[in-house]
Amino acid sequence: MAAGDPTLPARFRRYLGSRGMEPADVPIWLIGTLVVLVWAAPFVWMVSTSFKFPGDVMTHEIEWFPRRATIDNYIRVFEYPVVRWGINSIVQAVASTSLCVIFGAMAGYALARLRFPGRAAIFAVFLASLMIPVEVSVIPMLLAFIKVGWASSYQALILPTIANVFSVYIFRQFFLGFPAELEEAARMDGAGPFRLFWSIAFPLARAPMIATAVIVFTLNWNNFLWPLLVVFDEDMKTLPVGIAAFAPVIGSNTQLEGFSVAMAGVTVLSVPSLALFFFLQRYFIEGISTGSVKQ
């Protein structure tokens, strides 16, 4: 059944045709909409609860939107050094993401464009490292940073996160399909491998660069375990570690009262990564699709 079928209402046919859709696409669109609603429901509940009074959180009837709103929960959150925690998180996430993008692009270019023995084996080891839980390496790294005196420092927060296999994979897949003509022209002008990468390949890798930046920034921004272990000073806490202080106390009369404040803290934590994704989502999807297709 085509979009121009006369049995369909004329307005519906025009609506589908204006969007390049067929009637067979409607069930897929409806299923996608349902998935989006299910995905968004916890986020809507979180934001709604952050504006509720403590007594309105646990009710018999589901209230997606508060009957009465208050900003007292956010005021209580910012009574803590949230701004300082946020600055620490921004420094850590931005520095880690920038270094991870650069090193991931260099590794991905080397694995895709350079010819050297063991290239395939090195990439296989990179992929195999994804099966190793992060918790396995946490204790040795923690002891090492304490021994060199870098605990509760930006070095301790940034250095362990600058190597990311996802960034290497995305850049490698992109550079596998990189036009060889551009490299040949640069070589004729006397460019070496580093000049080829830095002046030709890396500036043209905008899509995988943005996709990698969104993924890595989100991972670094929400990183909890490592900052929790390596930071001992209150002033060096990151936002996820600090926000954990707002978790309701189980088994006490403060449990119900803590939910609204906790939701306010988590909302503050989630805003930067969500804003980054929404602003860069077009480039993010383009970069992911580019890196997922074997050239």
Fold and architecture overview:
The chain starts with 9 loop residues before the first helix and ends with a helix. It is mainly α and 295 residues long. The chain has 2 domains: 10-73, no CATH class; 80-292, MetI-like (MetI-like fold, Orthogonal Bundle), CATH 1.10.3720. It has helices at 10-18, 25-50, 72-77, 82-113, 119-128, 134-147, 154-158, 165-176, 180-188, 193-201, 206-221, 225-230, 239-243, 255-292. It is built from 14 helices and no strands. The radius of gyration is 25 Å and the shape is flat.
Write the layout of secondary structure elements.
Elements: H1 10-18, H2 25-50, H3 72-77, H4 82-113, H5 119-128, H6 134-147, H7 154-158, H8 165-176, H9 180-188, H10 193-201, H11 206-221, H12 225-230, H13 239-243, H14 255-292
Helix pairs in contact: 2-14, 4-8, 4-11, 8-11, 8-14, 11-14
Please give a quick description of this structure.
The protein is mainly alpha-helical and 295 residues long. Helices cover 67% and strands 0% of the residues.
What are its keywords?
295 residues, mainly alpha, MetI-like fold, 2 domains, flat, disordered N terminus, disordered C terminus
